[in-house]
Design goal:
This protein is mainly alpha-helical and 169 residues long. Helices cover 76% and strands 0% of the residues. The protein has 9 helices and no strands. It is globular and about 50 Å long.
């Protein structure tokens, strides 16, 4: 049942990413719904699971998109690894904690994306200032809204799974 819910969440976010990306972008900056989904699942799953999840999502986006093949596979896999590593050590108590982690990983993800896309071009410096931070902030806002609307039972189960206190009982 849990994996069916994950599958539904992932299909929804990939569809949102592909369909809404151009519609809700502000001056070319759009949120990354897939990073929010990977971050949410990383709160309950292992680093290996979220790394593989990032790979699968990146592969699907590359297969359906028209960008540089393999770029989303690379960046989403790295993001999944980072989410898994951070949430493996972090016990979540408030909605701002995972949203801030998503902001941090999204910023790194976007810097990596920009570096790979603009390597060897004259406008690398300009693009590093113009894209990664606004996109990470937009993703942070989407994540905060998403986490704010989660029911309390979801938060209790996430805290219960990750807390050392509950594991000792």
């Amino acid at each position: 049942m849990k994996y069916l819910a994950y599958f539904f969440l992932l299909v929804t976010t990939v569809v949102l990413q592909i369909v809404l990306e151009d519609l809700i972008s502000i001056k070319g900056v759009s949120p990354d719904f897939c990073l929010v989904a990977i971050g949410f699942i990383a709160m309950a799953e292992s680093r290996l699971s979220t790394t593989l999840l990032g790979f699968v999502i990146g592969f699907v986006i590359d297969a359906l998109g028209s960008g540089m093949w393999g770029l989303n596979v690379l960046t989403k896999t790295v993001a999944g690894f980072m989410f898994g590593s951070i949430f493996n050590k972090l016990t979540v108590h408030h909605t701002f904690q995972p949203a801030f982690v998503i902001f941090s990983v999204a910023l790194f993800h976007n810097i990596l994306l920009t570096l790979v896309l603009d390597v060897g071009t004259a406008h690398l410096g300009r693009d590093l200032l113009a894209y990664p931070l606004p996109s990470a902030l937009y993703t942070f806002v989407i994540a905060q809204v998403f986490f704010s609307f989660l029911p309390g039972s979801t938060w209790r189960s996430l805290v219960k799974r990750r807390s050392r206190i509950y594991k000792e009982l």
